[in-house]
TrEMBL record:
Domain PH: 215-332
Gene3D superfamilies: Dbl homology (DH) domain, Pleckstrin-homology domain (PH domain)/Phosphotyrosine-binding domain (PTB), SH3 Domains
Main location, first listed in the record: other
Keyword ATP-binding: no
Keyword NADP on entry: no
Domain of life per record: Eukaryota
Full protein name: Uncharacterized protein
Organism: Ridgeia piscesae (Tubeworm)
């Protein structure tokens, strides 16, 4: 999408949707939206349009003065303007989560849906939904680094324009990262608030969970296996229980789910937790009578300050690995996983969009390319997204492995430029 067509689409969002009689709560007495709903739904999209319009005007003026612009001149203009004015994208991306939720809430209202359907069916929308138009700024700021990276790829590294293009790439990558971090920060703060409202501290010290510095690393259900030394009856069905763990960047909460709430039964600073995988030949060392039926993928988690040990069973090998590494990094690997060095790792291309279910998972868009550092036997991969260096876990079923030395070399060069630009301008 060119800058002109992008600007035209933003203009449509504002004129056709935001300033419609039914939606414009700031100026129209007939609006069905409240001012608060309006501000959340359309965020600062008018500011984004203003910045984009001025940017296009700048490009047109420079082009009219000199129709033959070098790549370095174009990249220089982009870098300078983006560094000064593109912070409006950070605000827009930061508010995107609230925007999406508000749109979902409003769609439950029949009056809103009637107006929205009528507006979306207008010929100038060309069959696209309002949400697809609202996503344009997010997509634009994500794709700009890729466009400039394509320019860098075609340039001679000895050209005087090359350092200018690389500086532009760094500016845009930094901006895209700030947008992503802003969105994550808002999502994290809301997640902390939501979890805090579900916790009960009955027999343990209450912890003030909500903090901008605290983030959720991983959560999920694990089966705890209780040993006979804890005074439990000998029936194995009485010697296991389901626990729900919340691991934050600084603390672990171990809870029992009771209805829709979670009772905290134990906690520990993250720094004082140690976890180890229990190999098949080690099971009887921890459980003299063996593990209960259907309890596989065992590991032990020790809360060092309390000298308390929990023996857990995970649903899969990859889930066990992720829990162990989240609490005790740099563990030894086993035969159920394959580790690759960054210089010799396979690459996969995304064929199906994937939305993370856990904080340690990687969001994937179609056509994304990912370096794979680890393959688990149950089909989960750990890797790094080439376009921004983000690392995480994802199911291999939504990807295909890239074959062919030429294609792989091209992607490796893109990754090299990403790393080089980060190092050169930090």
């Amino acid at each position: 999408m060119s800058e002109a067509s992008y600007l035209k689409s933003l203009h449509l969002v504002i004129k056709h949707f935001a300033q419609s009689v039914e939606f414009d709560a700031l100026h129209s007495p007939a609006a069905i939206l409240t001012k608060r709903d309006y501000k959340i739904l359309f965020s600062n999209i008018e500011s984004v349009w203003t910045v984009s319009a001025r940017f296009l005007g700048l490009l047109e003026r420079v082009w009219n003065h000199n129709p033959i612009l070098s790549p370095g001149q174009i990249c220089g203009l982009i870098a300078e303007y983006a560094a000064r004015h593109f912070d409006v994208y950070i605000n827009y991306c930061t508010n995107q989560m609230f925007q999406n939720r508000k749109l979902g809430e409003l769609k439950k209202n029949n009056d809103f849906m009637e107006v929205l359907t009528r507006l979306e069916n207008h010929p100038q929308c060309k069959g696209l939904s309002m949400r697809s138009f609202l996503l344009l700024p997010v997509q634009r700021i994500t794709r700009l680094p890729l466009l400039v990276d394509g320019v860098c790829h075609r340039m001679d590294t000895a050209s005087p324009d090359y350092p200018v293009a690389m500086k532009c790439l760094h500016v845009l990558q930094k901006l895209a990262k700030q947008c992503n971090e802003g969105a994550k920060r808002m999502h994290n703060l809301e997640e902390m608030t939501r979890i805090n409202q579900l916790l009960d501290f009955r027999n343990v010290r209450t912890i003030a969970l909500v903090s901008e510095s605290r983030s959720l690393v991983k959560q999920g259900q694990l089966t705890r296996i209780l040993t006979s030394s804890q005074g439990i009856l000998d029936k194995w069905t009485r010697r296991k229980e389901l626990l729900h763990l919340f691991l934050f960047n600084d603390i672990l909460l171990i809870t029992k789910k009771r209805g829709e709430r979670y009772e905290v039964i134990d906690s520990a600073p993250r720094i004082s937790i140690h976890a180890d995988i229990i190999q098949e030949d080690q099971v009887t060392n921890w459980l003299p009578n063996g593990s209960p039926r259907h309890c596989k993928n065992l590991f032990v988690m020790a809360l060092l300050e309390k000298t308390t040990e929990y023996i857990f069973s995970a649903d899969s090998m990859s889930e066990r690995t992720r829990w162990v590494e989240a609490t005790t990094p740099s563990q030894q690997v086993n035969e159920d996983e394959t580790i690759y060095e960054s210089w010799d790792c396979p690459q996969v291309q995304v064929i199906e969009r994937y939305e993370p279910n856990q904080p340690d998972e990687l969001q994937l868009e179609e056509s994304d390319v990912v370096d794979v550092f680890r393959k688990m036997a149950d089909g989960w991969f750990e890797g790094e997204r080439i376009r921004d260096g983000e690392r995480g876990w994802f199911p291999s079923s939504c990807t295909v492995e890239i074959v062919g030395e030429h294609r792989r070399a091209k992607n490796m060069r893109q990754r090299y430029r990403l790393l080089h630009s980060m190092q050169a301008f930090n």
